[in-house]
Amino acid sequence: MTRTALNTALALTLGTSLAALVAGPSLAADAARSVTTSAAPAAAWEAVGDFCAIATWHPAVAKCELSEHDGTMRRTLSLEGGGTIVEDLVGRDDDAMEYTYKIIESPLPVANYESTIVVTADGDGSRIDWTGSFDPSGASEDEAVKVIDGIYEAGLTGIVTAAEK
């Protein structure tokens, strides 16, 4: 191998290694929680399916206001004790009983957050799954996952209560 070819190969290897180092490891984290209820899937979907119904079943949400932003449905959540979360509806499928949303603004320790809530039949009742992916922001991955898991657990408890009425 000539000196020029060797220098070119070394530069390419170094450049690739440097690019991988700068990019760093993937920061994406996941959270997932599920709950079953004796409520029929239709009753569970009725409780959770409306994009702004979160104010009726999540204990941390004092108020939900719907608006439209660039053709996308947006909800603004006023939190108990102060704070606001702004979320956009990404997709909705009433037949599959699911919707996906993403956070636009929030005090939560996450960035690039996207989440899906799904209701499925489970025996005589239903199962509700709430999953999300995000990048930790301003907190460790463990801390961010713990916060989101807590939000999911409290919300799922509220959904079951609402669905079983």
**Structural class per helix/strand content?**
alpha+beta
Order of helices and strands: HEHHEEEEEEH
List low-pLDDT spans. 1-26
Query: What proportion strand?
Result: 35-45%
Number of helices: 4
First CA to last CA: what distance?
78 Å
Q: Based on DSSP secondary structure assignment, what is the total number of beta strands? A: 7
Going across the major beta sheet, what is the strand order? 1-7-6-5-4-3-2
Q: Main β-sheet: number of strands, strand sense, barrel status?
A: 7 strands, antiparallel
Helical residue percent band: 25-40%
Assigned CATH superfamily: START domain
Based on the coordinates given, report the CATH architecture.
2-Layer Sandwich
Keywords:
165 residues, alpha+beta, Alpha-D-Glucose-1,6-Bisphosphate, Chain A, domain 4, 7-stranded antiparallel beta sheet, disordered N terminus, Polyketide_cyclase/dehydratase, SRPBCC family protein, START-like_dom_sf, signal
Tell me about this structure.
This protein is α+β, with helices and mostly antiparallel strands and 165 residues long. The protein has one domain (26-163): START domain (Alpha-D-Glucose-1,6-Bisphosphate, Chain A, domain 4, 2-Layer Sandwich). Helices cover 34% and strands 42% of the residues. The chain has 4 helices and 7 strands, in the order H-E-H-H-E-E-E-E-E-E-H. It has helices at 3-23, 41-48, 54-57, 141-163, and strands spanning 29-37, 61-69, 72-79, 84-93, 98-105, 110-122, 125-136. Strands 1-7-6-5-4-3-2 form a 7-stranded antiparallel sheet. Strand 4 (84-93) and strand 5 form a beta hairpin. The radius of gyration is 21 Å and the shape is globular.
